[in-house]
Each structure stands twice: as structure tokens, then as C-alpha cells.
Amino acid sequence: MTETDSRGNLRRFGSHLSMRWWHALIVIVVPPVAMLILQIALFQVAQQMEGPADGTETLSPLRLLAVNLSMIVTGVLTVPLVARFAGVSWRAVLSFPRRLDRRRLVVYLGWALGSTVLGNAALGILAPDRTPWVGFGVTGTTVALIAVMLLTTPLTAAAEELMFRGAAMPAVASWVRPERLALAIGLILSSVVFAASHVATDPWLFGYHVFLGLATGVMAIRSRGLEAPIAWHVANNTFTAILNTLLAGGGDFSVARAAGSGGPHLLIPAVFVLAAVAVVWVREGRVQARMAQN
């Protein structure tokens, strides 16, 4: 069921679900673990089809498909799990108390794409040596990778928002009664779990993923739904992945997570993420003000 505050008012999105403590623990722990297990299993299938991996931080089209499918399946299955434990409609996992708004999704997708393009451009200009770009090239591998990305990366990004901002954040918040404290704890812990799920051993990269979790969590809370964080996640992951693939010299898709892969250069795209959060914050404030007047 949904939560109310001490005055009987509905609590904000992100702290709006009520479930037993052990149900919340399952929601926080099981989906990321299940995703990793499924990813390993699908990797084994890919290995049987194309041979052992070369040990580098790159993904072939088939291995990228394995990663993305593991996230998509887990994200989709997480929604009915949360709805069942909380005793609510699956729609309440996506937005609350308002209905899911497709127009919001489209509007924020446009803003997010602009922010992502500018962020990558700034990174290329200010820190070109910290990008994975080696030169433009199109091969059969490039075409196959881009096909996989266009078909699955948007769904993968949406699935991550379902798991961490739609499920883990309110699950953690359900342990705490005061609304503001519940939102803060839910936001922080779900962001840490989100970062941990990326298995990054570089401290800068881990911290950047925590920051991204916090940023998209704030978008969700402010907008009372997942349209804004999904839009940003879809635009960022899809555009950046395709750009990196086109500039990989015709090779496999690079995924750098080891120590040394991060660094202060991550502050550059972080600025544009903050700009995207500011857009959501201001726009949602205006929307809520108009609703109050009516």
C-alpha cells in the first residue's frame, strides 16, 4: 500500500510505498544479484557461440547483447515484484500520485539528448586523452554493435531506472517513518547499490556512478515519477555508446571499469548532468505551481 505522513497526506514519490522490512530487503538485494547471475549465464552462451573472450575491457555484439538482456529481463520482472510486495498497481511503481505521462518522457528526452551531446563534446575538447576514442571506423562489427544498441540500450537504461529508482529507493525508504529522512536514506543507499551493480573497481568511476544515481533519484522525486530519469538514462547511454562505437576504429565496444579508468575528467560530464537535474527541478516546479493555481 502507499504511505502517508503524520498529517495523513500522501508521501512523495520515492517514499510512497509500504512493505514489510524483509520484502524491502528482497527488492534491494535480489534484482541486482539476479541480474549478475543472468549476465554470467548469458555470457557462457555467448562464449559457446563465438569462443572465449580475449580478456580485454571490450564487448563483442553478442556479449553486449548478453549484458543488455540480463538488465532488461531483471528490470521488467522487478516491477510486479515490488507491486506485489507493496500491494499496489504496477503503475504506482512508475509514477505517483499522478499517472505516467508520455509527454513528459518526450520533452525530457529532448533536453537529455542535448545535455549528453554537450557533455561528450566538452569531454572530447577538454580531456581527449581520457576518452576511448581511437578514430572513426565502420566495419561489420560496428554495424552489429549499433544494431544491438538501438534495439536494446534504451530498454536497458529504462530497466535500470525501474530497478533502482522505481524499486530500490522506495524499498529502502519504507524502513523509515519521517518522510524527508526516508527520502534521503532511500536516495543514498539505492545510489550506492546502483554503483555497486556496475562492478567498477576505480574509485573515481564508482563515485561517478553514485553521483548519477543521486542525480536521477532527485529527478524522480521532484517529478513524482520515472519519466525524467528514464529519459536522461536512455539519451546518455544510447548516444554515448553509439558515439564510442563509431570512434572505436571499427573494433569492439569498450567498457573501462578497472582501476585507473576514472579520474577528475569525470567532473566534466557531471556538470552537464547537474544541468539536466536543474532543468527537471525548474520545469517541475512550474508544473506544480500551475496545478496548485487550478
Automatic annotation (TrEMBL):
Residues covered by the CAAX prenyl protease 2/Lysostaphin resistance protein A-like domain: 144-239
Pfam families in alphabetical order: Rce1-like (PF02517)
An example Gene Ontology molecular-function term: endopeptidase activity
Keyword Hydrolase belongs to the record: yes
Bilayer-crossing regions: 21-45, 65-85, 105-127, 133-159, 180-200, 206-223, 230-250, 262-282
GO process annotations (BP): CAAX-box protein maturation; proteolysis
Keywords: Hydrolase, Membrane, Protease, Transmembrane, Transmembrane helix
Protein name: CAAX amino protease
